[in-house]
Amino acid sequence: MKPAIKNQLMMKNLFSFCLFFILLGCSQREEEPQTDILPALTEIGANTAGVIIEEFVLVPKDGINQSYGGPGIIKGLNVTLGSTFIESKGNDSFSLALKNVPLKNGFTFFMDIGILNRTGDYFTEDYPKWPQIYVQKIVEGNSVKKFYAKKNSCKVTLRKLDFESGIISGTFSGELYDDDGNKITLKDGRFDIKIK
Asked: Which PROSITE patterns is this protein grouped with (predicted)?
């Protein structure tokens, strides 16, 4: 065999070999398991939260919104307080939203407790009454299905409510249902929020 032809065959084989490993690496990246882990269970106002939804670990992460006339940051962890929440010592609404904005597939989580003025257990009511928890399933960046708590199907345990230091911490778990009666589970939910 002529040296030129032999070199061409070697280069072609080397190219094929490299291409094979590049494609293998790409396919492995697409199928890599999720590596997010839940934050530690704390009561220090760490501004952390997370939950496991059907084995999917949801930890809030910020992202960019390209709609509404330009880019803007979407917060992965969003807390909304009623206008008199602090002054009234919790006799106003408290809501928590968790999103991993960069992910196109997964879940978003929403919790509306309503009056949050004591530590201890809070149990969900039938939608849309408070307290309420619901989850949206996200596929390719779009909400495709919503799951809601039923009466007593989820429990929120408020572990710390300190208006002086502005810390709200707790845990949650339970079951949610879609309109067809399909169920998903929430486990190991936690939040540790600094509100002022």
From this structure: PROKAR_LIPOPROTEIN (PS51257)
